[in-house]
Design brief:
about 550 residues; mainly beta; five-stranded antiparallel sheet; four-stranded antiparallel sheet; globular; binds heme D; EC 1.7.2.1; oxidoreductase; transport; nitrite reductase (NO-forming) activity
């Protein structure tokens, strides 16, 4: 099956970059344009096109649109392509009614001018943006409330630009905090005391979960657009450092773990892994903290390289560069936390990195557009320890053997493929104490699938799945109500789902009893607006999934 519109819109979500900050360049070599037209096109390009074609139009999920190509193709060709789309995946922006003919004409001319570049964002800009609201010495010495912070959930309220801190035991909303634009993920510090939230606008908020109620103690903007943040977890470095990766400018920054003071900014611009051509915009995707060395593992999307950034001596930074495949996106650990498995989603491969020996051990072929989130680790009754991913492009749920010692014949091979409800899946989840494997189908065009969840019995995988109507259980009324991202509580006996509705409709979080698979609680407080990712502190710190 070809990609659905939902899938394309997912990869092409609006950028966090404010078009007003770009350098305007109506150059004489492109077709005539007014300043207003150029401004309109710049804004529209960031909102609709940059996610796939890149800010500098060098191409990523979408084809390159540099002026050497676009001028040769000319206005008529570009207008037709934008209007009708292409079988290769370009949406039909004209016939869908998204853009008028006049707007398409402006965009076609705009693409024949040099791209307006957003500014760089180095240490001085980061330092200027950095606000230490509460200094470490002014923070409480002990926890100021009776909640168990390890069972807190940091919940992304995407379109509200907020994070909700919800207590997993009582289901109380302990705090709602204003964070970045279209806020994306939260990762806790190794002690579990601090939660670091990053917005698509590259703003990081550091939340002190010991305060009553939890508060933001430091804020920094590490670029113009970003998706990932992580903290140091290696023994002796707990809570010492944080790292964030940016989409624009393409770079990562290492910060002080107590204050977010920026220490070292490193560009990811460079050569692609395969053709070894220069790429000016290799965005930083997932980052995980190694448990085996004082290292951050950094996925660089467009160059297809995985960097092992050793933070033992930040002034003499040593980086191991592992060649994998394009375009690296998300991933997680195997159950032993030695091997990092990550999706190269345009190569339809899973790259496996040995974090002890610092090398690539496999580049396993899977089916169309793997999207694991952090993946799910299961002890397969037949194949032993395996790591599981679902996919955007088809209904396969793919199991990779992860036990080179106990089951060497299965290691890094696809040992089992299950059929799920359909494509458009974003996340899978299980827990070491659970017998369930949960698979969402958030972006499936069929509402019956996007609003429900498939659950497999790990001890009887061939039996197929049951479907739980999560959105129906939430009983919210109108709207798309997509069910997204299963997440366990600390005890591993409850699983939480977001029912992600639009901004003007009601959303909720649905809590399911893991043993009985029955509804346990609907958290439908009106402050829960557009919930998506949920990060249980204990499970995220300890990489339990
Ligand atoms: Fe995400 C993780 C990038 C759209 C929800 N997302 C990630 C990571 C990256 C990423 C690089 C890994 C971070 C890490 O582990 O360090 N996401 C992107 C995109 O580029 C993309 C495709 C489009 C965009 O422009 O942002 C995108 N993501 C989305 C959504 O539309 C989702 C579904 C809803 C939302 O909140 O925006 C979404 N992404 C998530 C979630 C995670 C995530 C919930 C963390 C999953 C986990 O369990 O760790």
């Amino acid at each position: 099956p070809t990609s659905s519109i939902e899938e394309l819109k997912y990869q092409g979500a609006p950028s966090g970059i404010d078009p007003a900050v770009t350098k305007k360049m109506v150059d004489s070599q492109g077709p005539a344009m007014t300043e207003e037209e150029f401004e309109f096109a710049t804004k529209t390009y960031f909102e609709r096109c940059a996610g796939c074609h890149g800010v500098l139009r060098k191409g990523a999920t979408g084809k390159p649109l540099t002026t050497d190509i676009t001028r040769e193709k000319g206005s008529e060709y570009l207008k037709t392509l934008i209007t009708y789309g292409s079988p290769a995946g370009m949406p039909n922006w004209g016939t869908s009614g998204d853009f008028t003919n006049e707007e398409i004409d402006i965009l076609a001319r705009f693409l024949q001018h040099e791209p307006p570049a957003p500014p760089e964002w180095g240490l001085p800009e980061m330092q200027d943006s950095w606000v230490l609201h509460v200094k470490p010495e002014d923070r409480p010495k002990t926890k100021q409330h009776d909640y168990d912070v390890e069972n807190f959930f940091a919940v992304t309220l995407r379109d509200a630009g907020q994070v909700a801190i919800i207590d997993g035991d009582s289901k109380d909303i302990v705090a709602i905090l204003d964070t970045g634009y279209a806020v994306h993920i939260t990762r806790p510090s190794a002690s579990g005391r601090y939660a670091f939230t990053i917005g698509r606008d590259a703003k990081i908020d550091m939340i002190d979960l010991y305060m009553n109620p939890p508060k933001i103690v430091s804020t920094i903007k590490i670029g113009l657009e970003a998706r990932s943040v992580e903290t140091s977890k290696y023994k002796g470095f707990e809570d010492k450092l944080a790292i964030a990766g940016a989409y624009w400018p393409p770079q990562y920054v290492i910060m002080d773990g107590d204050t977010l003071e920026p220490k070292k900014v490193v560009s990811t611009r460079g050569m692609t892994v395969d053709t070894q051509e220069y790429h000016p915009e290799p965005r930083v995707a997932a980052i995980v903290a190694s448990h085996n060395h004082p290292e951050f593992i950094v996925n660089v999307k467009e160059t297809g390289k995985i960097l092992l950034v050793n933070y033992n001596d930040v002034d003499n930074l040593s980086v191991t560069t592992i060649g994998a495949a394009r375009f690296l996106h998300d991933g997680g650990w195997d159950s032993s936390k030695r091997y990092f498995l990550t999706a190269a989603n345009n190569s339809d491969r899973i790259a496996v990195v040995d974090s002890v020996d610092r090398k690539l051990v496999a580049l396993t072929e899977v089916t169309k557009i793997p999207h694991p989130g952090r993946g799910a680790n299961i002890n397969d009754p037949k194949y032993g320890p395996v790591w599981v991913t679902s996919a955007l492009g088809n209904d396969n749920i793919t199991f990779l053997g992860t036990d080179p010692e106990g089951h060497p014949e299965n290691a890094w091979k696809v040992v089992r493929t299950l059929k799920g409800q359909g494509g458009g899946s974003l996340f899978v989840k299980t827990h070491p104490k659970s017998k369930n494997l949960w698979v969402d189908t958030t972006l499936n065009p069929d509402p019956a699938k996007s609003q429900s969840i498939a659950v497999f019995d790990i001890n009887n995988l061939d039996k197929g799945y049951d479907v739980l109507p999560i959105a129906e259980w939430a009983d919210l009324g109108e709207g798309p109500k997509r069910v997204v991202q299963p997440e366990y509580n600390k005890a591993g006996d409850e699983v939480w789902f977001s029912v992600w509705n639009t901004m003007d409709e009601k959303s909720a979080i649905v809590v399911v009893d893991d043993k009985t698979r029955k509804l346990k609680k609907v958290i439908n407080d009106e402050r829960i607006v557009t919930p998506t990712g949920k990060f249980n502190i204990y499970n995220t710190v300890n990489d339990v999934y």
